[in-house]
Amino acid sequence: MPGFEIFGDEERKEVNDVLETGVLFRYGFDAARKEHWKARSFETELAARLGVKHAHLCASGTAALSTALAACGIGAGDEVIVPPFTFVATIESVLMAGAVPVFAEVDDTLCLSPEAVAAALTPNTRAVVPVHMCGAMARIDELKTLCDRKGLVLLEDACQSVGASYQGKALGSFGKAGCFSFDPVKTITCGEGGAVVTDDAAVYAATHAFADHGHDHIGSDRGAEDHLMVGSNFRISELNAAVGLAQLRKLDWILETQRRNKAAIKTAMQAIDGVTFRALPDPEGDSATFLTFFMPDLDKARQAAAALGTAGVDGCFHWFDNNWHYIRKWEHFHTLKAAARLAVQALPNCPDFSDVRLPQSDGLIGRAISMQIKLGWNADQLAQRIEATVEALKGI
Ligand SMILES: *Cc1c(COP(=O)(O)O)cnc(C)c1O
């Protein structure tokens, strides 16, 4: 997830275009902006790169998720099936919509299990939000088939997986809408930013309206000033969009570099007894931001994480013991500790989030370790890392 590694002259040039005009905003000021439309250009190039009809930038990936849920008609009391392994923002956006997160197990892809989703359906289920974690894919074709058959909204959280694909089709483009994040640690960054993509013209219209107080954006500027709907302000700034535009143009090089670095490490690790790897439904489409592997059990995973730390192999995550990405440690969420009462708490069937049982996910996440793949490693650093990794893990 290395966008932060490569802030360079290209990003500075795009930002300077904006600074020279002083038009720091994505809408309006047509004459003053001297043809610079950074957010708009980013959207056009992102849609083309992902093979979707529409892309709309937002202030963050979380804002994109909130916007996409609303644009897909998900709201008060609707049940939304989510995985327990994700960044907590996925769950927050469901709660902020007034909807009910319903957890289903992950499988060996570390993403939502299609069988577990089928088992979690109720008459109130409206949407399924698979999260393509750590740069690679869920069993997205099976999830899509299930959603189509049951008439459910498929909304992909592809925040961590821009540029990844399944059978040549971009992650984020399978469902009614897909969301991306361009925050400081993602594959490409805007500083802060996110995007909703969709092929559905009505969802797109609702997306950009919702993210800007219901403005219609027809014609020039913000359109006829009609109020299409109640929305919010999830707009991106032109400055942030400018950074992302330069980063997007480096995406293919980023993917190539990550894939090469990951392959070198993975090949060497294949020889280590007891180490197995995360299932990838389409290895070719992996964006390779992380190398995720399994140890034989929780104890050995903890030993492995410690040994990698001692050996100086940085950027390794044992998610089971990490605060932000697995439900086990979300104490604030278990008790719905919030600044103000949440809509879900007013529901007669508000789930008991302190008692969500996911033994299959506990087992898998307990054994999983992800190693971040960086762009900046030179050949020596990569060789050293491989040697240190094999050395640290082989005795466990
Ligand atoms: C980063 C992330 C988000 C939220 O994105 P922000 O831009 O940080 O708001 C949502 N879901 C997942 C899976 C993420 O990794």
List keywords for this structure.
Aspartate Aminotransferase, domain 2; transaminase activity; four-stranded antiparallel sheet; Aspartate Aminotransferase, domain 1; pyridoxal phosphate binding; 396 residues; alpha/beta; seven-stranded mixed sheet
Per CATH, the class of the largest domain reads Alpha Beta
Task: Please describe the biggest sheet, giving its number of strands, its sense, and whether it closes into a barrel.
Answer: 7 strands, mixed
The DSSP helix count reads 13
Helix-strand topology string: HHEHEHEHEHEEEEEHHHEEHEHHEH
Radius of gyration: 21 Å
Please give the number of β-strands.
13
Low-confidence stretches: none
Roughly what fraction of the amino acids lie in strands?
Answer: 5-15%
Spatially, the strands of the biggest sheet line up as 1-9-8-5-4-2-3
Overall mean pLDDT stands at 96
What is the terminal-to-terminal distance? 28 Å
The small molecules bound here are: pyridoxal-5'-phosphate
Name the shape in a single word: globular
